[in-house]
Amino acid sequence: MRFIIELAIWLVSAFASIYAEELWNAKSARIMGGIPISISDAKFVVNIRSYGNYKCVGSLITPRHVVTAAHCVFGSWRRSLKVTAGVTFLKETGVQRSIRRIFIPSAYDRPPLNMDLAVLELSSAMYGDNITTIELCNSTGQNYYHVYGWGKTRYAYPSKRLRMVKVPSISRSKCLKSFKNFNVQITPAMFCAGDLNYRDACIGDSGGPAVYQNQLCGVVSWGPECASKIYPGVYTNITHMRNFIENVIRK
């Protein structure tokens, strides 16, 4: 019976997700201009797979909890998802876990992807070579971020290897100005980053970490274009979402 109920919920959520995607035509699944790295350089980075296919990026914040973007898992059937850790290349098996529970803020709004964050509780703790956790952001005044993912390096060419790009932060006033004609609200749960010169997160990097001084400060959320000269990338603000994350961990 529980299986049937979960299937029904998944079908309803899937149709809602498709409808929302039609309303939101920006490239919400958004590393261009970055460099290839090894997982040993970012042991907290995991990838999320749906029915065995790569879908999004995540960050291991405890051995049993992963932070990613809400739009990566919203409308997905929980049993179809797995988290893979300890891999540099997507073809590697690594250490895999299924997902026990998915937590998304009740105020998550799609569109415009406000509070675009999810915490995944894993079926069991993740341990192994090249696997570790990252602490949540407790610093302010960041002037750059390191962003990680397996997303596209060009519009037509996905990366099969983990990559990293360093992007500068963008002031809130400049961010608001960039999107003033875009008919979208940049909320306190968001911040902007990118140098507007072909260095950015891109399609497939959704949910990926934006890291400053070894702390998880942002999550790749959305952007109208990859490495646009007009629009910066938009990230979920971990400082703003910290209470939600910590409450989930305590459950």
Strand content: 25-35%
| Strand order within the widest beta sheet | 9-12-13-16-15-14
Mean pLDDT across every amino acid position: 82
Low-confidence stretches: 1-30
Under the CATH scheme, which class of the largest domain?
Answer: Mainly Beta
Helix content: 10-25%
Structure, described:
- By secondary structure, the protein is α+β, with helices and mostly antiparallel strands.
- The protein folds into 2 domains: about 40-135 and about 245-250, Thrombin, subunit H; about 135-240, Beta Barrel (Thrombin, subunit H).
- It is about 20% helix and about 35% strand.
- The chain has 4 helices and 16 strands.
- The chain has helices at about 1-25, 70-75, 170-180, 240-250, and strands spanning about 35, 45-50, 55-60, 65-70, 80-85, 95-105, 120, 135, 145-150, 150-155, 155-160, 165-170, 190-195, 210, 215-220, 235.
- It has a 6-stranded antiparallel barrel. Strands 2-3-4-7-6-5 form a 6-stranded antiparallel β-barrel. The chain has a two-stranded antiparallel sheet with strand order 10-11.
- It is globular and about 45 Å long.
